[in-house]
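tool_call: predict_structure(chain=1)
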Amino acid sequence: MPYAATHLAEPPTREAVDALSGTAVLEFGTPWCPHCVRAQPLLEHALKSEPTAHIKVEDGPGQRLGRSYKVKLWPTLIFLKDGQELTRLVRPTTQAEVDEALRAVQA
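tool_result:
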């Protein structure tokens, strides 16, 4: 699954995320967040040729999945391998930091 340009209509459950196999990037944010908008080209570039799932979840008050990961700022990118968090980035600003986090889960 390549880069996802839009947020999911319905977020997955924590149990579904924990059961994922392979690598994935779980992105929490909103379409109107300026930090989220600035991060999109970085994510798109990093994921364009990678076999990594991109799960884009709109976050906000009362959203259980974001709370289960203790998300405080947007965007928060959680890099998963077989459903387990290996690393996370909060408000990434450079291509290098996104690429490095992606390499960490693919190792």
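agent: The chain has one domain: 14-106. Proceeding to next step.
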